[in-house]
Specification:
This protein is mostly helical. It has 2 domains: about 30 residues; about 90 residues, no CATH class. It is built from 7 helices and no strands. The longest helix is centred in the N-terminal third of the chain and has 26 residues.
Length: about 120
């Protein structure tokens, strides 16, 4: 009986440890730099805007832009940041949903200098 109790405690501890480590990874949102590397410099946004992306890539773009929206800008007005990043999130979600004209809205929202001139750090 005692061996069964000890084994149960060990198994339960292992499950708890795996669950906590999984939640820690899920809770980590991409940084602004990571989003820019994947979406802009990596070409994901351009691929989606051209209509050449798979559904999985469209979903990834929407998730990455949502993470961007959740970040705090290195400089500039936070209200401006929220407005600009919300436009990216909405456009990416519209492309994902297949709404007409969504790719044009994505191209317009993905104006690099519109954000960089107001919010990019050093």
């Amino acid at each position: 009986m005692r061996k069964l109790l000890v084994a149960s405690v060990i198994v339960a501890s292992g499950w708890a440890a795996m669950g906590l480590s999984g939640n820690a990874q899920d809770a980590k949102k991409p940084t602004i730099k990571e989003v820019m590397q994947v979406c802009m410099k990596g070409g994901l946004c351009g691929k989606v805007a051209k209509g050449e992306a798979s559904d999985e890539e469209k979903k990834k773009l929407a998730e990455m832009f949502a993470a961007l929206h959740a970040n705090t800008p290195p400089r500039g007005d936070e209200a401006s940041w929220k407005e600009k990043t919300k436009a990216l999130v909405d456009a990416a979600n519209d492309v994902l949903a297949g709404k007409p004209g969504a790719t044009d809205a994505l191209r317009k929202a993905a104006n690099c200098m519109g954000c960089h001139s107001a919010h990019k750090g050093k």
